Amino acid sequence: MAGCIYICYQGVGKSSIANRSTGYIDLESSRFRLTGGYRPTEWYKYYVSYAYGLAWQGYNVLVSSHKVVRDEVADQRHYRESGYYYPMGNSQIKSFIVYPSLELKQPWIKKLHERFLMDGCHKNRVAYLNALDRYTDNILEMQEDAQRYEFEEIEIKSMDYNLKEVLDRTNQN
After folding, report:
1. Which of 42, 55, 107, 125 is the Cys-Cys partner for 3 at CB 3.0 to 4.6 Å?
2. Which DSSP letter does residue 39 get?
3. In a domain, 120, yes or no
């Protein structure tokens, strides 16, 4: 049975669910870099292709929500549905987009800020600053892409949630 691809906004808990639950993989986009820290121009193509490969093996793959990633998930889904990669097409792999509600803006930014302060990690600093500057735009763009690409939407409406329970419940539908 094929897994799913979950396009997740920063801070939803990709690493936490992958570290605590069997069958989930956090495909960390910051790892798709060449020696010296540079990303290949089309890194997102490799990243999404790898995600589809893992999903075909039955894993639920949690990917970043970069615009190029969202576009590529849709492009490869369409391309694969033509039967080019897999004889069964790609209809068995569901694509979800996971984001917090617009009403959670302030607590979400606070959460990202606290995460950065705890570990000082560069990627967490970038996530915090991005949300501080573009939270509303990010969420609206993800909602638009969900409609455009027919991704199933999962909106987080409370800061008190268990991502595994949310994903498991949604995946059963």
Report:
1. 55
2. P
3. no
Q: How far apart are CA 135 and CA 129, in angstroms?
A: 9
31 exposed, middle or buried (CB, 10 Å; 0-12, 13-18, 19+)? exposed
Domain hosting residue 32, numbered range: 4-100+136-171
Token pair recorded at residue 93: 């792999």
* Per-residue pLDDT tens digits for 22-62: 899 998 776 666 667 677 778 888 889 889 999 989 999 99
In a domain, 119, yes or no: no
Nearest 5°: the CA angle 109, 114, 119 is 130
Give, in order, the Cα–Cα distances in Å from 126 to each of 54, 70, 73, 88, 108.
Answer: 27, 19, 23, 39, 14
Residues present in the chain in total: 173
Whether 109 maps to a domain, the answer reads no
On whether the CB atoms of residues 60 and 167 are closer than 8 A, the answer is yes
- Token look-up 């949310």 returns 166
Structural domain tally of the chain? 1
Q: Can you name the residues that pair with 157 across neighbouring β-strands?
A: none
Q: What is the rounded CA–CA span in Å between residue 54 and residue 2?
A: 9
Q: Tens of pLDDT along 141-173? A: 999 999 999 999 999 999 999 999 999 887 765
Q: Which two tokens stand for residue 22?
A: 């069997």
| Residue 113 domain flag | no
